[in-house]
């Protein structure tokens, strides 16, 4: 079973990206946001972990960010020129594409630009949803026989994860079967660019790649999986089906809020968490109504939330994994069910921090964590996502079974409130009937 990285796992040598360059962000407030971050860090005026004596505590163990971010409509079709300018050697470039993305021709501009700039693109478009070891092995074999020296992933988290894994396997001469957990960085990690076409995982910013072996998901971790180039091209999400927009945006919102609740949250991840959460709350409704600019904003928010994952996720993702496995749900649907209840469970976390999270995300000093949970639940319902388990035929025995699996398979040492099977059973009993108010009352007692 996959486990999220423990804080100790994150102490790997960072042989990966180290230049933090933002080429172009398409949101007007983005620059202000980054400038505000720098102001806060220099002046210590923001502190999600107040020490109580007014002295800011800024402790950042490690913070990974792609070496370059390019965010602009049409940017994917300029990647070949960018690679040439960056002296990426000419040769075979493997483009690992989601099959639907390829059928829709969303990778065409990228492939043409690679050819125009002297590269030899090899398109591997066999990613049909969550990848397994079989498709990974086929991709590795194709890359080796083509002599691929650079790798580009284009698609949802599934395609991006395969690109990370193939780059590592081919560059380090590692067999796919050996890939599990934290892997040692390799000497010359090949050029890797990631181009997301969904608005959820933020995989273009994370150190994680997942694939399934025999039906069980396996997480592979390397700082080198944070790519040389992340490309946010809003044109690629303009036609994304509304149910995928809704589910993946709730995945991004979960990354944003869970990373902020994590005990490993720091001043910098907090900034990304808050901005990502605000953007999803504001921009999902118009994005679902077909507003292309709002969809581009969600793509950006998904990236921000991926950066916030430097602090990892907490209980919500544990619940989402067991819910998705039990009822065959997309990852984002499981996240949307779990997130308000994760907030309910964690309401007894550090009080100033909880108050600050709600106030900053909702931009209202009077708001509390319950207001935030209610707003999230309403957003999911309005987006057409399920808000209870009864519709899936969930029986009365299910909450205790799911709670036991959360604790045994996905323990979260970084959750701000310790996971306890009895309380989780009560929590999931309320989730089963969609009773957030009841969950809030039940979880309000001191654990
Ligand atoms: N690396 C990480 O940090 C990380 C984090 C969380 C999840 N994941 C992994 O990511 C995967 C989930 O990613 P996802 O939610 O993006 O889903 P996905 O990649 O499986 O794609 C979801 C669906 O959307 C389709 N699709 C993608 N882009 C499209 C477009 N532009 N137009 C039309 N259809 C499109 C795909 O064909 C697929 O059917 C899982 O395998 C999960 O394990 C990775
Ligand atoms: Fe997720």
TrEMBL record:
Keyword Iron-sulfur attached: no
Domain (Fe-containing alcohol dehydrogenase-like C-terminal) ranges: 246-428
The Alcohol dehydrogenase iron-type/glycerol dehydrogenase GldA domain, residue ranges: 66-233
The organism's place on the tree of life at top rank: Bacteria
Keyword Cytoplasm: no
Database matches in PROSITE patterns: ADH_IRON_1
Any one GO MF annotation of this record: alcohol dehydrogenase (NAD+) activity
Key words, A-Z: NAD, Oxidoreductase
Family listed: Belongs to the iron-containing alcohol dehydrogenase family.
Protein's name according to its UniProt entry: Iron-containing alcohol dehydrogenase
Organism whose genome encodes this protein: Nocardioides caeni
Biological classification of the source: Bacteria, Bacillati, Actinomycetota, Actinomycetes, Propionibacteriales
């Amino acid at each position: 079973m996959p486990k999220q990285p423990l804080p100790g796992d994150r102490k790997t040598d960072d042989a990966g990206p180290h230049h933090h360059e933002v080429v172009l962000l398409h949101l007007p407030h983005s620059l202000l946001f980054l400038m505000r971050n720098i102001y806060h860090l220099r002046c210590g005026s923001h502190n999600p972990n107040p020490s109580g004596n007014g002295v800011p505590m800024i402790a950042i163990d490690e913070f990974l960010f792609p070496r370059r971010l390019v965010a602009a409509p049409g940017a994917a079709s300029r990647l070949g020129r960018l690679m040439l300018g960056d002296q990426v050697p000419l040769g075979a470039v493997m483009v690992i594409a989601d099959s639907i993305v390829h059928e829709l021709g969303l990778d065409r501009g990228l492939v043409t630009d690679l050819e125009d700039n002297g590269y030899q693109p090899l398109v591997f478009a066999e990613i049909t949803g969550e990848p397994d070891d079989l498709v990974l092995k086929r991709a590795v074999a194709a890359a080796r026989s083509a002599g691929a020296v650079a790798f580009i992933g284009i698609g949802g988290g599934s395609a991006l994860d395969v690109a990370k894994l193939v780059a590592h396997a081919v560059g380090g001469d590692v067999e796919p079967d050996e890939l599990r957990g934290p892997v040692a960085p390799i000497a010359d990690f090949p050029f890797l660019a990631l181009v997301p076409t969904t608005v959820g995982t933020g995989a273009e910013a994370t150190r994680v790649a997942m694939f399934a072996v025999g039906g069980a998901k396996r997480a592979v971790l390397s700082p080198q999986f944070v790519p040389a180039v992340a490309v946010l091209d809003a044109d690629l999400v303009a036609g994304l089906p509304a149910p995928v927009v809704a589910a993946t945006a709730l995945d991004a919102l979960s990354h944003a809020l869970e990373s902020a609740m994590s005990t490993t949250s720091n001043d910098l991840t907090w900034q990304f968490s808050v901005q990502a959460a605000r953007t999803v709350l504001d921009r999902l409704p118009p994005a679902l109504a077909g507003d292309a600019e709002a969809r581009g904003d969600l793509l950006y928010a998904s990236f921000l939330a991926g950066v916030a994952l430097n602090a990892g996720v907490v209980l919500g993702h544990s619940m989402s994994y067991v819910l998705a496995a039990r009822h065959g749900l997309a990852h984002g649907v499981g996240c949307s069910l779990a997130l308000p209840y994760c907030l309910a469970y964690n309401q007894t976390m550090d009080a100033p921090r909880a108050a600050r999270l709600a106030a900053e995300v909702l931009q209202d000093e009077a708001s509390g964590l319950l207001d935030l949970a209610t707003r999230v639940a309403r957003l999911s319902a309005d987006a057409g996502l399920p808000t209870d388990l009864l519709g899936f035929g969930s029986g009365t025995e299910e909450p205790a079974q799911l709670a036991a699996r959360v604790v045994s398979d996905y323990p979260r040492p970084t959750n701000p409130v310790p996971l306890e099977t009895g309380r989780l059973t009560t929590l999931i009993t309320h989730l089963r009937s969609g009773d957030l108010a009841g969950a809030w009352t039940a979880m309000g007692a001191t654990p």
